[in-house]
Amino acid sequence: MYSREIAIPDDVSVEVEGNKVKVSGSRGELKREFKLTHDVKIQKQDKKLIVNSESASRKTKALVGTIVAHIRNMIVGVTEGYVYKMRIVYSHFPMNVKVDGNKVVIQNFLGERTSRIANIVGNTQVKIEGQEITITGNDLEEVGATASNIEQSCRIVGYDRRRFSDGIYLIKGKK
């Protein structure tokens, strides 16, 4: 038998219903449904969350560890939140970056006439202040996916990246 525990902070409430976990805190709530295989069970006892399995195989231990990590990220998200910072870098053509609904629009990238568009995932907020972009949210995966979308939308193809360093790059991640 293999088991891992997570201590639940006082200002966080966790509800477990089969393979669904709902975490609520001061910044909001997050829900997640896990695909449980290998007889993995999630249980709540007092102020602890226990993820256990009857098997102790390598795959089962990895699965239990992954579930524990996701739940810890959810707890941090509803208490502190996540902040990613990105920097706009250009050498010749000044870029215009703006938020338009649930999209980030990048204009004049390398002097291109067409705009490049990056999607904002979920309930993530994007703020642009000068040459810095701040991405905030409760869900680590949504914040990371939004930062990745912005960075990938400025990917340079067909040029030497050492010479053409224009783009939007991640400078600080997580908390």
Write the SSE topology:
Blueprint: E1 2-7, E2 13-17, E3 20-25, E4 28-33, E5 40-45, E6 48-53, H1 58-79, E7 82-89, E8 96-100, E9 103-107, E10 116-119, E11 125-129, E12 132-137, H2 140-153, E13 167-172
Antiparallel strand pairs: 1-6, 2-3, 3-4, 5-6, 7-12, 7-13, 8-9, 9-10, 11-12
Would you give an account of this structure?
- The chain is of the alpha+beta class and 175 residues long.
- It folds into 2 domains: 2-79, Alpha-Beta Complex (Outer Surface Protein A, domain 3), CATH 3.90.930.12; 82-172, Outer Surface Protein A, domain 3, CATH 3.90.930.
- Helices cover 21% and strands 42% of the residues.
- The protein contains 2 helices and 13 strands; from the N terminus they run E-E-E-E-E-E-H-E-E-E-E-E-E-H-E.
- It has helices at residues 58-79, 140-153; strands at residues 2-7, 13-17, 20-25, 28-33, 40-45, 48-53, 82-89, 96-100, 103-107, 116-119, 125-129, 132-137, 167-172.
- The strands form 4 sheets. It has a 4-stranded antiparallel β-sheet, covered by helices on one side.
- A hairpin with a 2-residue loop joins strand 2 and strand 3 (20-25).
- The longest helix has 22 residues, at 58-79.
- The two termini are 34 Å apart.
